[in-house]
Predict the structure.
Amino acid sequence: MSSVKNVIKDNYNAMLINDFLREKIKDAGFSNVEISKNPTGTRVTLYVTRPGIVIGRKGTGIKELTDLLEKKFGLKNPQVAVEEIQKPELSPNVMCNRMASHLERGTAFRRATMWTMQQIMENGAMGTQITISGKLRGDRSAFEKHSAGILPRAGHHADVVVSEDIVHVETAMGLIGIRIRIARKEKLIPEFELKGKSKEMKEKEAQVKQEAAELAAKAKTESELIEQEAPEINKIDSMEEEEEELK
């Protein structure tokens, strides 16, 4: 097999593994996986929000996962490592999964979008854009795009600063696609400088972060976090009720 075919095969296998892990360790807040080959085998690094769920009691969870990766995907001597994501709200992979979970629970798509965007911006993102498309309301497909903050769209700055992820979710209305793009300040190019925020804005952001941290600390899994967030999302005014009355 040529080197080109080997690369294609490895990339396709990596995609299958990523999709498998997204569903398998969903409650651990799976973000992404890095796979690299070394002389002793294959190193698999998982990035999650709750490492304890992946590891399991006395390492039983990680052992089971290692066996699955070896048998199901043919990885040679997989060595699984788990890394914790310090700021899950700034990971497009995590936020895509959370938003998809809210839509699966029947949350109105605009409320879920506004809540997700609010969580991203209040946790220190420079900017974000959420695109949602598919069977949003009726039989005909549609799409909506919502943005906040500063988000470079093209060029070298966009490649460095912006990260994105796409997921698809089955709802009662049909298939819906979610695309989230997030620009992070810590990856900001030196020649770019953002204007300082007022004292009141900084205090408000600190308060929101504290409340979010307390909510996340109470939840042991991502599913529990989604349940705890549901009442707060329902308070958001997305004008969907007014639109339905006008029809």
